[in-house]
Hints:
This protein has 400 residues and is of the alpha/beta class. It has helices at residues 2-27, 32-39, 43-56, 120-137, 193-203, 264-267, 269-281, 299-307, 311-335, 350-364, 367-370, 384-397, and strands at residues 30-31, 59-64, 74-78, 84-90, 94-101, 106-113, 145-152, 155-157, 162-166, 171-175, 188-192, 213-218, 222-228, 231-232, 339-343, 374-377. A hairpin with a 4-residue loop joins β8 and β9 (162-166). The longest helix has 26 residues, at 2-27. The structure holds zinc ion. Zinc ion binds at residues 245, 255, 257, 259, 262, 264.
Amino acid sequence: xxxxxxxxxxxxxxxxxxxxxxxxxxxxxxxxxxxxxxxxxxxxxxxxxxxxxxxxxxxxxxxxxxxxxxxxxxxxxxxxxxxxxxxxxxxxxxxxxxxxxxxxxxxxxxxxxxxxxxxxxxxxxxxxxxxxxxxxxxxxxxxxxxxxxxxxxxxxxxxxxxxxxxxxxxxxxxxxxxxxxxxxxxxxxxxxxxxxxxxxxxxxxxxxxxxxxxxxxxxxxxxxxxxxxxxxxxxxxxxxxxxxxxxxxxxxxxxxxxxxxxxxxxxxxxxxxxxxxxxxxxxxxxxxxxxxxxxxxxxxxxxxxxxxxxxxxxxxxxxxxxxxxxxxxxxxxxxxxxxxxxxxxxxxxxxxxxxxxxxxxxxxxxxxxxxxxxxxxxxxxxxxxxxxxxxxxxxxxxxx
Length: 400
Ligand SMILES: [Zn+2]
């Protein structure tokens, strides 16, 4: 019985510490009186918790706040570089790593090429070795590392820390949990890259305080992360937001998933590039003809040509945006989100196509669902999923 009481007390104490810590994070700088008012904990209890958190080195006194008549209060904020997290974002071409602290400040960042063949065990070895280098370079003790978050383009089981299917990487049913034997005791998390983007937009980006939103990543594939009522929407088996496999053309091309006419086969940047190559081979008049080897045409060269006024390139981007707009109209009708954020490669050409896409949604979605919708490019640019991967262990630490 006594043991239980002690256990409950410890749980309550840690719970209250976490609540206070998260309140400090959200408010950036806050007084003890405000903490007491906002948490409902007594001034005495707040005094004890703040003293403990100061002792643990998680927070610091940052300055003097405005007076409400009495003595001007001391403000408290999170202490920079007291604890850390490492995020890893993977794609067909690259592996990016970021070191972040509890204030969400980026301490270090690097990107390397994805190893050829993308053999899972080899990639995990590379990641483990790079994390080891970061820990050494920044002199971080492993007790100060809250965890490692991995963002993967594909379906994941985040609860079981498994990749279910990442078709573009060729990985199926692989376990992440035991892949870093040289980093014992460090918690590892895995997340779908679009959900990782949604997590970062919600934590530090343009969806802070927004409860219902959809983050759509457009690049070689298309995926989305959905937040409902302030939480990631996981569905029945943890696999949600696969908007890239929404069928938009029953007579369309075969997709990586085995189906035909998925949005991804029409609106991804891979598809835009394929279309451009085909048109150039057919001899269409375009600035893309200036590129000597047709196989060298990339999404970036199409965007550059579009900016240079090349009608063929502009039309390819607009056509892709049209299909995206149609798919988003359906999502808006089904979920009625406050915001739709478009990320990854899309941000590099959003200025060319966003108005067109918004117009499609305005015309095609029910006017009641689309009335107040805000559709924007990601505020975090192409790094949203990388930052999100580092934020996953932070969310756990702050009890979110
Ligand atoms: Zn598909």
